[in-house]
Design brief:
Distance between the termini: 43 Å
Bound molecules: nicotinate mononucleotide, 5,6-dimethylbenzimidazole
CATH class of the largest domain: Alpha Beta
Protein name: Nicotinate-nucleotide--dimethylbenzimidazole phosphoribosyltransferase
Helix content: 40-55%
Radius of gyration: 20 Å
Shape: elongated
CATH architecture of the largest domain: 3-Layer(aba) Sandwich
Largest sheet: 5 strands, parallel
EC number: 2.4.2.21
Function: Catalyzes the synthesis of alpha-ribazole-5'-phosphate from nicotinate mononucleotide (NAMN) and 5,6-dimethylbenzimidazole (DMB).
Number of strands: 5
Number of domains: 2
GO molecular function: nicotinate-nucleotide-dimethylbenzimidazole phosphoribosyltransferase activity
Structural class: alpha/beta
Order of helices and strands: HHEHHEHEHHHHHEHHEHHH
GO biological process, one term: cobalamin biosynthetic process
């Protein structure tokens, strides 16, 4: 897998040091500019092609009463995405993202993970490839998000499998479950782990048994982006959980990723800590759809604008540090 361009980072850092501000005073905006320099290979990175992808899938485990909403909302929200009426449509418009909607076999939910593998090998591979194939090679930044009623349950199971712990450590309220609902969800995650845990051989097998189509697709998109040196803004709990199986085996896989935000979903902060990612925002969001990533994309724009447009001390004839 390609690494960031250390030469471009060094040149961009030298530029940062000359801009008219106390050294380091733009804080994480400076880090973002250097991160983008590393993955674009340019001293002054552009953000001309921002792509957002929302993958959608349905989950057999939703029949177990693990969501506050019915599964038909998934296909209905995909309709809303196509009509431009969802939160992500508004947020993508305002951050200047081109939005790609990728529903995957919505008429065919995965199997309930507490009783069977979610997908066959072929189904999981198809979903991974759908994710990889949705990435626009011209993108200079990608954000990934999802829609799938019930998907915080497989996401919790993937986290537990990757980083240890059980349902109680990783299952949260999702779309707004009450306490008995969360207790059901904890039990379902633990059943899935008991059924599959010992058989899981590798990250692909974890995604196949415990994941879902939109989850595997996000993993495919994240890995494909790395191959193309496209940096990625990860959205919430489910988007981050998609890469957990691979990250547990190969921590460097998220080197081209930034965590857009820490969602209100209980396990997300813990998951980000395991991934070694410091979220850009804490907004108590828990929507999914790539919505937190679209908001964070505005920060990337701000970071790159300052990096590209500020005068140097010499240009502005401002005295440097003592
Ligand atoms: O992004 C998050 O952190 C997040 C947290 C909670 C819920 N969601 C969204 O809500 C759905 C999953 O919640 P649930 O309760 O149906 O498992 C799915 O469509 C996600 O996009 C998303
Ligand atoms: C309405 C609705 C919109 C969503 N977007 C992402 N997950 C969602 C879940 C629901 C219920």
């Amino acid at each position: 897998m390609p690494a960031a361009d250390a030469g471009a980072i060094a040149v961009a850092a030298a530029r940062q040091a000359q801009l008219t501000k106390p050294a380091g005073s733009l804080g994480r905006l400076e880090e973002i500019a250097l991160f983008m320099a590393g993955w674009s290979g340019r001293e002054i990175p552009a953000l001309d092609h921002l792509q957002g992808i929302v993958f959608a899938g349905n989950h057999g485990v939703a029949a177990k009463g693990v969501s506050a909403y019915p599964p038909e909302v998934t296909v209905q929200m995909v309709g809303n995405f196509h009509q431009g009426g969802a939160a992500i449509n508004a947020l993508a418009r305002t951050c200047g993202a081109h939005l790609t909607i990728v529903p995957i076999d919505l008429h065919r939910p995965t199997q309930d993970i507490s009783g069977a593998p979610a997908m066959s090998e072929e189904e999981c591979l198809t979903a991974l490839n759908a994710g990889a194939g949705a990435v626009d090679p011209r993108a200079d930044l990608l954000f990934v998000g999802e829609m799938g009623i019930g998907n915080t349950t497989p996401a919790a199971a993937l986290c537990a499998q990757a980083f240890g712990g059980g349902g109680a450590d990783w299952a949260g309220r999702g779309t707004g479950l009450d306490a008995p609902g969360v207790a059901r969800k904890v039990a379902v995650v633990d059943e899935a782990l008991a059924l599959h845990g010992a058989d899981i051989r590798d990250p692909f097998d974890a995604l196949r048994r415990l994941g879902g189509r939109e989850i595997a697709a996000m993993a495919g998109a994240i890995v494909a982006s790395r191959g193309m040196r496209i940096p990625v803004l990860l959205d919430g709990f489910i988007a981050c959980a998609s890469i957990a199986p691979i990250a547990a085996a190969e921590p460097d896989i998220t080197a081209h990723c930034m965590a857009a935000h820490c969602s209100a979903e209980g396990g997300h902060a813990r998951l980000l800590a395991h991934l070694g990612l410091a979220p850009l925002l804490h907004l108590a969001m828990r929507l999914g759809e790539g919505s937190g990533a679209a908001v964070a994309a505005q920060l990337v724009r701000s970071a790159l604008a300052a990096h590209a447009e500020m005068a140097t001390f010499a240009q502005a004839e401002v005295a440097g540090a003592l």
